[in-house]
Design the sequence.
């Protein structure tokens, strides 16, 4: 039986096309060996699910260090909550939260840091502090200076789908056909990014779980995540602790780890290139095991 166990290629899951992302300074992120794990580091008093927990800069740095030790491939630092109904934060306040954390982490760890913001001035400060990727949940729509900034600095951008705005998005999300609509919307944002001078080798697409979507929309996107491969870019999936899990499990945000891991497994088998999670260690294990199942006995990490 052992020769059978070693044979890959008969799995029912879609292939994950190999993708690479060019970082500034001639580095690249390779997503062919296995999907990458992005750790979420929210430096906010009111963020989605770890509200207040990592609000002080030194606590955030400790958490970032821990994520790195647990095997994170990237860390996403954000200073403004985008939870449904949340209020915006000033540029100054957002910079004050994220810049010291990024600066300190960059001095200590070598994995790339992304700055999660919709504001070009905050992104610029984050890049000056050493971040190497922009994660903009508005897909370059909120701030007209964001696309020129990314183009000029030569940094990758995560383009995330959202219907509506964080304040209004969960009121009545409607789609003709959610996967097709999200794909088409992302295709247009990719075109805009490329026309703005951001190379295709510097773009990531993300269906934006929970951003203007019902539970059914989220589940459909997760089941059919591989259809986003048609865009020809790496696909990022962020489901960690989100309310879709609360709807299924009826548990609080802090008790959604197992549910999150089920979505991570599904995302990986559906072809995600990057998973964005709060709990890095458990997600790294899930990613490695899912990848080994897909590939067979020839799987080697790294
Ligand atoms: C996402 C995000 C996501 C990307 C947030 C939270 C909620 N960025 N920022 N994708 N979600 N790219 O931290 O869970 O799904 S905010």
Sequence:
């Amino acid at each position: 039986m052992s020769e059978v166990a070693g044979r890959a290629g008969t799995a029912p899951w879609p292939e994950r096309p190999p993708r690479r992302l060019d970082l500034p300074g001639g580095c690249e992120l390779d997503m062919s060996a296995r999907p990458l794990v992005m750790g979420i580091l929210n430096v906010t008093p009111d963020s989605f699910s770890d509200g207040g927990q990592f609000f002080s800069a030194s606590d955030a740095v400790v958490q970032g260090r821990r994520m790195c030790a647990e095997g994170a491939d990237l860390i996403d630092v954000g200073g403004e909550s985008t939870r449904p109904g949340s209020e915006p934060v000033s540029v100054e306040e957002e910079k004050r939260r994220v810049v010291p954390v990024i600066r300190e982490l960059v001095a200590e760890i070598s994995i790339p840091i992304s700055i999660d913001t919709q504001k070009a001035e905050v992104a610029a400060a984050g890049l000056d502090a050493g971040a190497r990727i922009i994660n903009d949940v508005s897909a370059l729509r909120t701030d007209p200076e964001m696309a020129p900034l990314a183009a000029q600095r030569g940094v990758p951008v995560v383009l995330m789908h959202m219907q509506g705005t964080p304040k209004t998005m969960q009121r009545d999300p409607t789609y003709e056909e959610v996967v097709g609509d999200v794909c088409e919307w992302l295709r247009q944002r990719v075109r805009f990014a490329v026309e703005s001078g951001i190379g295709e080798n510097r773009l990531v697409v993300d269906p934006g779980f929970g951003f203007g979507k019902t539970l059914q929309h989220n589940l459909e996107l997760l089941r059919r995540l591989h259809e986003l491969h048609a865009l020809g870019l790496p696909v990022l999936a962020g489901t960690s602790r989100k309310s879709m899990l609360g709807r299924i499990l009826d548990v609080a945000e802090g008790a959604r780890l197992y549910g999150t891991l089920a979505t991570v497994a599904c995302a990986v088998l559906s072809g995600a290139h990057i998973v964005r999670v709060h709990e890095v260690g458990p997600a790294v294990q899930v990613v490695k095991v899912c990848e080994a199942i897909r590939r067979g006995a020839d799987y080697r990490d790294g």
In short: The first helix runs from residue 2 to 5. The chain is about 40% helix and 15% strand. Residues 40, 42, 48, 82, 116, 135, 137, 158, 160, 206, 208-209, 236, 238, 240, 276 surround 7PJ (CB under 6 Å).
